[in-house]
TrEMBL record:
Naturally occurring in which organism (per UniProt): Neobacillus vireti LMG 21834
Domain Cytidyltransferase-like intervals: 6-134
Membership in a protein family: Belongs to the bacterial CoaD family.
Gene Ontology, cellular component aspect: cytoplasm
Keywords: ATP-binding, Coenzyme A biosynthesis, Cytoplasm, Magnesium, Nucleotide-binding, Nucleotidyltransferase, Transferase
Subunit structure: Homohexamer.
UniProt lineage: Bacteria, Bacillati, Bacillota, Bacilli, Bacillales
Binding positions for ATP per the UniProt entry: 10-11, 18, 89-91, 99, 124-130
Principal place of residence: cytoplasm
Protein name: Phosphopantetheine adenylyltransferase
GO biological process: coenzyme A biosynthetic process
Pfam (any one): CTP_transf_like
Length: 161
């Protein structure tokens, strides 16, 4: 039985922290679906299509990664791709409470779908898409935080504003 994981997130935009988790997960699971949450409640900087394009570009050298989008319940998307695992990154203890709540909810919705956590590299323990956007907004150096293509697209976004 092949192991298929779904790695959900906003990825607005993808950071080196996300890439770290995806690369580590792709070594463990046969397939990793990196799925962009199409959540109308948030006001994203990048469109879903832009985020998917950036993730595809940044992970193009990882053959068992598939990039997709979903709206609605993660457990329903997981069932649609026959995933038997959810993959999440943990950056610091502060992530744990939220992740525990989400995992408990998903377990209620689908007892058979297990969540696996991978700890990010310590150098990314502070990193989030939000903090990267804040630094990029004021033209700060983000070259060690996101891949070059993401840095370039962020600069374009803030030049437009
Ligand atoms: O960028 C974020 O907002 C974010 C959130 C939660 C996260 N867990 N693991 C990672 Br890498 C990560 C990144």
């Amino acid at each position: 039985m092949s192991s298929i994981a779904v790695c959900p997130g906003s990825f607005d935009p993808i950071t080196y922290g996300h890439v770290d988790i995806i690369r580590r997960g792709a070594k463990v699971f046969d397939k990793v679906y990196v799925v962009v949450l199409n959540n109308s409640a948030k006001n994203p900087l990048f469109t879903v299509e832009e985020r998917i394009s950036l993730i595809k570009e940044v992970t193009k050298d990882i053959p068992n990664v598939i990039v997709d989008e979903f709206s609605g319940l993660l457990v329903d998307y997981a069932k649609s791709v026959k995933a038997n695992a959810i993959l999440r990154g943990l950056r610091a203890v502060s992530d744990f409470e939220y992740e525990m709540q989400i995992t408990s909810m998903n377990r209620v919705l689908n007892e058979d779908l297990e969540t696996f956590f991978i700890m990010t590299n310590n150098q990314y323990s502070f990193l989030s898409s939000s903090i990267v956007k804040e630094v990029a907004k004021y033209n700060g150096n983000i070259s060690t935080l996101v891949p070059p293509i993401v840095e370039k697209e962020l600069q374009k976004k803030f030049e437009q504003k």
